[in-house]
Design goal:
homodimer, about 300 residues, alpha/beta, Helicase, Ruva Protein, domain 3, Rossmann fold, 6-stranded mixed sheet, globular
Chain lengths: ~300, ~300
Amino acid sequence: MKTFFDCIPCFVHQSLDSVRMTTTDEAVHERLLREVLRTLAEMDMRQSPPAMAKRIHRIIREMTGQADPYHDAKERFNRLAMDIYPELAAQVERSANPLETAVRLAIAGNVIDMGVNHNLSDEHVHEGIDHALDAPFEADIAAFGEEISNAANILYLADNAGEIVFDQLLIKQLLAEKVTVAVKGSPIINDATMEDAETTGLTKLVKVIDNGSDAPGTILEDCSDDFRRRFDEADLVIAKGQGNYETLNEVGRDIFFILKAKCPVIARDIGCHVGSLVLRRSRSTIMKEGDSHAKR
Amino acid sequence: MKTFFDCIPCFVHQSLDSVRMTTTDEAVHERLLREVLRTLAEMDMRQSPPAMAKRIHRIIREMTGQADPYHDAKERFNRLAMDIYPELAAQVERSANPLETAVRLAIAGNVIDMGVNHNLSDEHVHEGIDHALDAPFEADIAAFGEEISNAANILYLADNAGEIVFDQLLIKQLLAEKVTVAVKGSPIINDATMEDAETTGLTKLVKVIDNGSDAPGTILEDCSDDFRRRFDEADLVIAKGQGNYETLNEVGRDIFFILKAKCPVIARDIGCHVGSLVLRRSRSTIMKEGDSHAKR
């Protein structure tokens, strides 16, 4: 997905939020703000929003010397999610449709997105869970379940810290032995990295790799060769969150996107309302449906 | 008031809203967006937000060749306000405290601010009226009334089209013969100009002048000599809206600001919550209270 004009004020806002996490020095805030505005003025709008965010957050890291401004926030949300995990797992277990409940809860975890909501509270997370369990959800869960059964190896592209705990509910439904989870190569906003996968016990459940990139999404040309090979070879790719949708929705392979539509730009692109729960097969696949194409 | 960093994403947003009113040509939207970002990157943050908005809207007018993009919107809100005026006037008349009710309704009219809310609906205006009549309001109306009685000539700085109809309720309480209303010198956002004063009958009620400026506030050095003389000579200045607060709150003379605090930056500066009704004597006066200074 390209960057829309309405993404630009959001980038400016996100930049301010981020630099304020690293320092209270207003001279640094101003320097960063001006540099971001200059960068945005010249940016290539055909790039996806995560490509732009990657550049902005590199500027912040360089200017402040802080490699991981969201480190404490990530720890906090990992801890919160781990605390409520047993209750959520019990909910999946007693559900009439455990796969659907697990998908709903994986979407609930997607509210932990500090790129969209910087002032995220525990309360927001709890509200997100209630909403995800109750909201209308038009996905074809049975078809998704069939694709999962048919796939021998599944690549699961994680999104954020904290959220990756919720993902474990869904990964267990997929059968963990078939799944490889990919986290980000290095810190970017509150996206999950290998450290978060270890902290939350994900590495004990499933094989975890990193994608070699510091973009808050999956920019294939920015990822490691190993990641790209796995991406090409997977029978099924599941991609969590807005950043992965923005970077992969036009890639020519079968992908299931699972996310909560949190901003008007994404909602318009997907064709849903802000706040909707989304399980969406990639557009390229839908367009090709009925063709006799092989998966790769 | 200086421009705060948090004003910057708002400027970008407002620029997009405005240019979209003039043309659906996305190439123009992009060109404007980039020019605004470049301008913001180099701006002097000691300037007030209206000084910056003035520059941005000049760029929009030059780029699109449209002198008054909000013309139709202004007509619409003038008409809406005129339609409900008789009912509001009756409400003031039967009020136990007509001056307070008139101030509350003048504040209600201040929701018609398309710089803050571009998608303003009739419903918002009606909600604004209900809120203004019911909300807590800590102003010292008696002291304000006394100042009005003591003043032989009052300069009333108008804010927006539509809103100037609500202002007539208050102007009648001030005694119209003592009052001169100043509107903007030429179109800027949906600020009221002489055309709006004529359309709404304000010119029949009271003397109306224009301030000679196209800033969405009152930047004294940008105003005509005639306006500045009247500003200096008035016994009392009443200034409506955020733009006038932002440009005059540090000017060393007695001013009563009347507005609804619609954004977090203004609310923080005033020391109130977003949404609060505000009748506030200028800070410079408050600081001087107890001194033996003459008014000028």
